[in-house]
Amino acid sequence: MVETVTSPELAAMVDVDLVDVRDERDWVAGHVPGSRNIPLETLRADPDAYLAKDRPVAFICARGVRSLTAAKLAERLGYAKIYNLDGGTSAWARAGLALVAESVSAAA
Q1: Which of 18, 33, 48, 92 could serve as a FRET partner for 101 with CA atoms 20 to 30 Å apart?
Q2: Count of CB atoms within 10 A of residue 42's CB?
Q3: How far apart are CA 19 and CA 71, in angstroms?
Q4: How far apart (Å, rounded) are the C-alpha atoms in residues 32 and 60?
Q5: Over its length of 108 residues, how does the chain's per-residue pLDDT go in tens digits?
Q6: Which domains does the chain possess?
Q7: Annotated catalytic, 23?
């Protein structure tokens, strides 16, 4: 079952795999600390290559729509502990929680 969590609830969780399903460009611009980027289309192609069934996973996107799609996919495939961040990174920022931006180096 997919459980929807608020930003403060997600921030308090430990030992959960944070998966941001936005495009890499959006992830680089600002993401939840500790999250890793697996775009939704990549995840759809081979979820078992990216997720561990024995570890809780929380899906994140900009507003909670793409992440809910990813969470429902994981649920159909038998993943046990699945969370969806309600409101995505937008809600995270509105809750006053910091987003991490990656610096992009210019190609040589």
Answers
A1: 48
A2: 15
A3: 10
A4: 8
A5: 999 999 999 999 999 999 999 999 999 999 999 999 999 999 999 999 999 989 999 999 999 999 999 999 999 999 989 999 999 999 999 999 999 998 765 554
A6: 2-94 (3.40.250.10)
A7: no
